[in-house]
Amino acid sequence: MRNSLRAGRVILFDAAKGVGFISPYGGDEDVPFQAQAIQFVDVLAEGQSVIYAIERADAGVRAVEVRPA
Question: Environment class of residue 42 by beta-carbon count within 10 Å: exposed (0-12), middle (13-18) or buried (19+)?
């Protein structure tokens, strides 16, 4: 289940492994994302501002629809 868009910045992105983490603006817990969740660009830089949605699943939460802000 997805909810509204949020904003944050990339704190880690490992293109070789295809995973990264976003630090949400507002101080919430860091959110993982997978490379296939990135939209409009191929890679994201650490420190880059992004907009994303949260998807909740049995294993926890993850960022989806991740795109540059």
Answer: exposed
For 20, other C-beta atoms within 10 Å of its C-beta total 25
Q: Residue 59: which residues within 8 A CB-CB, separation 6 or more?
A: none
Domains in the chain and their CATH numbers? 6-68 (2.40.50.140)
Token pair, residue 53, equals 């949605």
Q: What is the DSSP letter of 58?
A: T
For residue range 14-68, what is the model confidence (pLDDT) as tens digits?
999 999 999 999 888 999 999 999 999 988 999 999 999 999 888 889 999 999 9
